[in-house]
Design goal:
97 residues, alpha/beta, 29% helix, globular
């Protein structure tokens, strides 16, 4: 019921990329109207062949996610934060139709 029309910014946090998330949130605060909702997503789940990207072979840590949430709150960005429990393989679609 929160989103009826307009824009919502969805940001997926990635492991070992907390500083990127903090920079994105800072940019949103500086450049977007204060009523644009932000969805901070923590559901990244490693999937597929990732040997070329070792930083993506794990889920977010609670500490990483807490830093993103804290920055969002400090900046006063409106929106919502997903729980880390949404980072589960059961949410990955069956891509082999």
């Amino acid at each position: 019921g929160m989103m009826q029309s307009g824009v919502i910014v969805r940001h997926l946090m990635l492991p070992m990329a907390v500083y990127d998330t903090l920079a994105v949130l800072d940019w949103l605060k500086e450049h977007l109207p204060p009523d644009v909702p932000v969805s901070l997503m923590g559901q990244y789940t490693p999937f597929g062949e990732l040997s070329a990207f070792p930083e993506l072979t794990r889920k977010l840590t609670r500490r990483e996610y807490a830093r993103g949430k804290a920055r969002m709150e400090t900046l006063g960005l409106k929106g919502f934060c997903q729980e880390l429990s949404s980072a589960d393989e059961t949410f990955i679609p069956d891509w082999d139709f």
